[in-house]
Q: What sequence folds into this?
């Protein structure tokens, strides 16, 4: 028997077959559980193991040693080897956010940078698609293929904005940028993932984005600055050069309008005349905050950045319970043929 605990007032228990993972069993029994890649790469199904024993078919890629030491496991890989109790970290409205499939229409394409395309999708009228800022969707392609994209705008009931990096080997990205017909109909599944703003916390926030990892952070900030403008929040956005800061003007305007919001762009290959922060983005955070105790941290972007940030921030005193992340690697590991 596997016992899932949503909270002190909401215990829930259900059986797990020996051959199935905790996530598969929970979904089979109708629980609304956060998940993403289902292959151990994204960390969306991370929960704390309170008691009991599990094992994995292989070490969980998304979890750092510090997270495992803090008791975290991945439901998509874990098999129960005794009665278990776990603590779920999920929003109370998750039941209304169960992933589902729906058609969307391509409404607009706009180049944000030399290699970043904003694709705006029109939701079906009156569909009521809901998500939390920070979550993502999978576009469902031919032959069972998928492509994952974070939603870059807060929920408005009408449109979704996706930031697509267009590289020479990116098949879907190049098709979307150069070949996709106007008003093309696509199918998506979502919302997915457990990367969203924890509104029940009042701790100061550190946000770290790498490249197009700014997309879900942008959605979070748009909602946060509207609902909780007095909560101290800092954003560190790491890119290669100044031309990659495609939301720079907007973020600077937000910082000017909100005294409690600080924005720090960080360049790893700075332009000759750059006078701002340079180097690795997580090191810029630690230079300003040698101790991260008492903060919430949100990291989004390339796997190298996310992994380095997780380890360094926990070593700097951040609680693993207050660490949230979205690593952009797992889609390529799960569906490598998409490039």
A:
């Amino acid at each position: 028997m596997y016992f899932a605990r949503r909270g002190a007032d909401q215990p829930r228990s259900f059986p797990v077959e020996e051959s199935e993972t905790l996530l598969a069993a929970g979904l089979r029994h109708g629980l609304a559980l956060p998940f993403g890649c289902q292959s151990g790469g994204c960390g969306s199904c991370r929960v704390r193991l309170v008691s009991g024993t599990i094992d994995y078919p292989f070490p969980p890629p998304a979890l750092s040693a510090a997270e495992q030491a803090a008791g975290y496991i991945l439901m998509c890989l874990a098999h129960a080897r005794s009665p278990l109790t776990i603590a779920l970290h999920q929003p109370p409205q998750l039941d209304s956010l169960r992933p589902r499939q729906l058609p969307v229409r391509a409404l607009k394409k706009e180049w944000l940078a030399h290699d970043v395309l904003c694709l705006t999708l029109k939701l079906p009228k009156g569909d009521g698609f809901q998500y939390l800022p920070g979550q993502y969707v999978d576009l469902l392609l031919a032959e069972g293929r998928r492509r994952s994209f974070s939603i870059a705008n807060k929920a408005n009931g009408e449109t979704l904005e996706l930031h697509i990096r267009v590289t020479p080997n990116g098949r879907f990205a190049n098709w979307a940028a150069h070949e996709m017909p106007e008003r093309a109909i696509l199918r998506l599944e979502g919302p997915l993932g457990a990367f969203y703003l924890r509104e029940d916390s009042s701790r100061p926030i550190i946000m770290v984005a790498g490249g197009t990892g700014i997309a879900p952070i942008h959605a979070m900030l748009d909602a946060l600055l509207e609902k909780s403008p007095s909560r101290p929040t800092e954003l560190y956005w790491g890119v290669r050069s100044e031309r990659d800061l495609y939301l720079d003007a907007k973020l600077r305007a937000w910082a000017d309008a909100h005294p409690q919001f600080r924005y720090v762009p960080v360049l790893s290959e700075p332009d000759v005349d750059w006078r701002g922060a340079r180097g690795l983005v997580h090191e810029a955070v630690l230079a300003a905050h040698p101790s991260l105790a008492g903060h919430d941290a949100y990291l989004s972007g390339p796997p190298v950045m996310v992994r380095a940030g997780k380890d360094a921030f926990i070593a700097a005193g951040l609680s693993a319970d207050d660490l949230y992340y979205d690593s952009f690697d797992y889609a390529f590991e799960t569906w490598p043929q998409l490039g």
